[in-house]
Design a protein that fits this description.
Layout lengths: L1 H6 L8 H20 L4 H17 L4 H21 L3 H12 L6 H17 L3 H18 L4 H17 L3 H14 L6 H14 L3 H14 L6 H14 L3 H14 L3 H17 L3 H14 L4 H13 L1 H11 L16 H11 L3 H11 L3 H10 L3 H9 L15 H7 L5 H11 L5 H10 L19 H11 L12 H18 L7 H10 L1 H11 L4 H6 L4 H21 L6 H4 L12
Amino acid sequence: AGLLAQAGEGDAPLSPEARAELTKARALYETLELEVPLSDYAAEAAAALPRIDARLGARSKADALAFERSLAKSRIEDELKRGRYKAVIQDVDALLKGAKVPVALRCEALYLKASAIFKQRKRADARTVYERAAKECKRAGADHKDTLVKSRYQAGRGRYAEGKYARAAREFEALATDARDHSYADDALVLAGESWASAGQRDKERRAYERALSDHPDGDMTGEARRRLLVMAFADKRLEDALALADEGLARERDRKLIAKMHYFRGRALAGLTRADEAEAAWIAAIEAAPLDYPAFQALSRLREVGEEAFARGVAVLERAGDEAVPSLELPASEEATRAALLARLGLGAEAAEELSAAGIDGWPAAAVLAQAGLWEASQRAVGRVGASWRERPPAGTARAMWELAHPLAFSRLVREGESSRGVPAFLTFAIMQTESRFNPGATSWAGARGLLQMMPSTAKGVAKRAGVEDHSPARLYNPEYNLGLGIFHLGELVARFGGEDAAVPLAIPGYNAGAGAVDKWLTERGDWDLDLFIESIPYDETRKYTQSVLGRWYAYRWIHGPKDQDARRKIPYLPTAIPKKE
C-alpha cells in the first residue's frame, strides 16, 4: 500500500523509479492473495491490483490467466483447510472447465477435489477421483511425484472402503514397490497387511508387515507393523517369535509407553515359555517405564495372577519415591502472581488466567492456580505444556502433587452421585471425561459430539428417551449436569451389557467410542482370544488407542484418588486374562 501511494495516481507518465515501485507493489499484492486468499487482506489486494494494472498497463493474457488459475488453486486449498468441502468440489469443477488447463494443475486440483470427497467420509466415491488425479500427476512428471503417491495411497483406501480387500492390498503393495523411497511406502505396507487380513489371507498379511520392517526399519510405521506382528504371533502361539519381536521393539523404541508395552508383551511371551522369573522381571520393568499407564495396568494384573508376593513387588514400584528434584507448584513471588492467586480464590478464573498470561507464568504453577479457579481445561493445557517426562516418576512423595493436579476430580459431586446410582465403576467417568473433553463443558468435536462426555446428539436423544427425559434438546448437552447425567446413564447401560462391575469396563469403553454393536461384532470374531490381545486387535485405530488411554487413566484415577486406607488389590482394578462373558 505504501509503494502504491508513493507511485501516485492519475494519468501522468511514470518515472522509472515509480514504475519499479509499482511493480514491487503488484508482486506483493499477488503474493498476499496467493498466501491468504480468503482473508480480508486478500480482498484489499484484489481491490488494489486493478489500479496498479491501470498505471503499469495490462499484463499479457497468458500471465493473467496463469495468475488467475494459481489464485483459484490457492482458494481451493484454503477452502479445504476450513472444511468447506462442497465449495472445493464446485470450484475444482469450474477450474477444470477452462480450455487447455495445464496437466500439473489438473493433477493438483483433482487431488484437492478427491480429498474434499474423502473428508466427507465418502471414501469409495473419492477413489475414482484420486485415480484420475494419479493419472494426471504421472503425466505431470517428477515434480508431482508426491501428489501421485498420495493419490494412489488414498485411492487404495477408497478401494478398501468398497470392500475389495484383496485388490486394495495388491494396490498398496505395488505402491510400496514403485515409491520405495517415499514416506508413504511403509504406511502402504501396513495397510496392505490390514487389507489382506480383511480378505482372510493371514500369510499375506504377515508378509506385508514383515516387509514393512525389513524394507523400512526406521520408518514411522515400523512400530505399528511390529505391534501387529506381535498380536499375530501370540494368536498363532508362536511365543519365540513374539519374544523376538518384543526384544527388537525394546532395542528400537524411544517412546516411554511403547517401551512399557514391549516389556509387558515380553513378559507374556516369557510366561508362556515357562520362564516365570524373567516374566515377572519384565512386568516390573513395564511398571517402572510408565507407572500409571495402560501397559503397567496390564502388568499389575498379570503379577496379581502370579501371587501376592509378585503383586506386592509391582505395587512397591508405585510407592517408590524418587530422588530426582520435583518441579515446584508454587507461584513465583511477584505482584501479578499474588493477584492471580487471589482472583483464583475468589472464583474469578478468567481474570486469574489473564494475570498469569501477563506475568508469563506457565507450567505447574499456572496449572495449580487455574485448577483452583475451576478452569479445568485451561489447567490441563498448562500441564500438557510441561511435557511428559514427569510421568516416568511414580506418584509417591513430593511427585504425588503433580499426579493429583494432572488428574483432577472435576465436577466431582455430579460424577460420584451419578456413578453410584447407575452402576458405573468408581472413577471411570473422570477417565472418560478427561479423554473426551479435558473437562471442557463447551467442547464440540469435528463430528458434532458435545460437552463433557462428548455425546453425539443422535446418541443422546436415544439415551434421553430410555432415561425418561422428556425435555431433551441437543443444546442442553453443553450443560455439565445434563451431559453427565445422560453420559453416566449410557455408561451404566454399557457396563451392564458387558457383564457389570469392573470386569465389564474393558468392553464398555470401546462400546462408548465405537458403539456396542461394533464390540459385539469383534467378540464374535475374536471372543476366544485373551483380553489383552483382543484390545490390541481392535481394528479401528481411534477406538484401540482410545480404549487403552481410558483404561490407563481409570487405573491412574483409582490409584491416586482411591481411599488412602484401601487395600491395593481393591484400589487397583483387575484386567483378567480371559474376556469377561456378557450377561
